[in-house]
Protein 1
Amino acid sequence: MINAIIQHGMPSKDEYYDPKQPSASNAQWVPWLQKQLTVHDIKADTPEAPLAFKPQYDLWVKEVERFEITPETLLVGHSCGGGFWVRYLSEHPEIFVDKVVLIAPWLNLDHEEDIAFFDFQIDPGIVARANKFVVFASDNDDPEVTNSVNFLREKIPEAKFVDFHDYGHFCTRDMGTDAFPELLKELS
């Protein structure tokens, strides 16, 4: 059975604790994508990483491993969630999936956050373990995300890179909508 795991990014601490804000797994385009996949008979899960504002890799792993990852699985990650999938797949060379789509992946290359979340080496064979491996980038994203995307272009050049104009960090405020048809198309 085809399934999808959609991993959110890293909210700010204020955003995380604000009762008026949705949880990270229910923010941005994530609910829209989950619904679109569901109506196409694809089970779509959105793990909620605890204390996501200060990510701890082992906690994120525990959350995503509650869901089955098979050769029919679609993996989606936004920002820190995209970087998470790069590390997870690099450290699990036995895993083969159908599709991986990373949206504005962030790898903390500049160490602007004091976290050990990204202390790992990218597996050069990571792209070969998916039928499709795509990275979305915007020309007006934050410099640290642009650096991460450029790093991935260098380390995994066989991935498909899709460049967008003026999508910012692919958040609702940047895109002006919760709908993300380009992402749904890549997953179809």
Protein 2
Amino acid sequence: MEIKYDEKGLVTTVVQDVQTGEVLMVAWMNAGALRLTQESGQAHFWSRSRAELWHKGATSGNFMDVRQILIDCDNDTLLLKVEPMGPACHTGARSCFYREFKKLE
């Protein structure tokens, strides 16, 4: 199965808690980040703002042990099912999705 990376060599990656099903974050991977993730069993991503590989938890201690990697039907999005070792969000929140954008009527 071949991943369809975008023009920058990245693939959107959704990160989900394997136990609760909660979506924790969305990040991007390039081929190097995916290889490191598969080799180490911990989540690695590509930081678009810093233009470098990023080992989730390397500075915060909030590592993510990857239990499963799934790919969507179009081969252009990955889903990492992880066991988080702490909050996913840089704000300290468990998930990056803790704010309601707009209330639905």
Protein 3
Amino acid sequence: MKKLSLIFLVLVYNCTNPNPNSSNSTSIELTESFKNYWFDGKAEINSYTLKQSRYGSPREGNAVLIYVTEDFLPNVQVKANKKSKSTNTVLKLNRTKKFLTGIYPYSIMTSVFSNLEQTKPLVKTTTSIQEWCGQAYLQLNRRGRLEVKSHSYFEGEADQNLRFKDAITEEEIWTWIRTYPKLLPIGDFEILPSLEYLQLKHKPIKLYNVKTKFDRKDSLNTYHMTYPELSRELSIKFSVLPPFKILGWEETDLKNPDQITIARIINTVKLPYWKLNKPGDERFRDSLGLN
């Protein structure tokens, strides 16, 4: 009986805390409430005040997280024009940041494509960074392993084609929170950090060790990620009830704790934004605090 109890506990632990280094992905059934929220033909748009640390000073700006489900072609890993037997359904996140550094602006966008019903959801990410000095573009594809293509105007970073073993990535945490937060990986493991962060800090693109923990409180959950080698901590705050809305985040330089990036939510709306492109539709930005 003791042996059977031990086996049961091991099985429960493995089901609720997936091994981040495992190449296996377990299917998860979507609930009706999940389908009702995410398959309503609209996108969820979240706006945030942003205080971005850049060049040692805080920069005022805004951030937007746009979540939407769409049909995806898994072989070529792009959005499908229409649903078919060849398509999968993904939850897509478009995360944007805009802020000024003195005279010139920064515009950053990251797209994350994550399979639904999977415990290892990421399929693809893209990141672009534009400012007056130049631009950078990075793309990650998961095809049994992680493949990264990086293009930058900086010497030594111009064109890179990198391959890594399959591993968890920081970007999929942002969609994982919205779908199955109870299955977020906890503990110490290797991860590919945010490509936005690595590019802005000119850090080598590689797997880094991360220490993660999950703080659960009555009205707020926080997922903490600490990178010892990078002296970086990222904490993402989100609601305890579905649809697990992200309420804000903080990114701290542990060697310089006063250099911190902070985002706080302004508002959330559900809209088919791709239809709102006519003159006058700018009014929809008012409720998001973006005008």
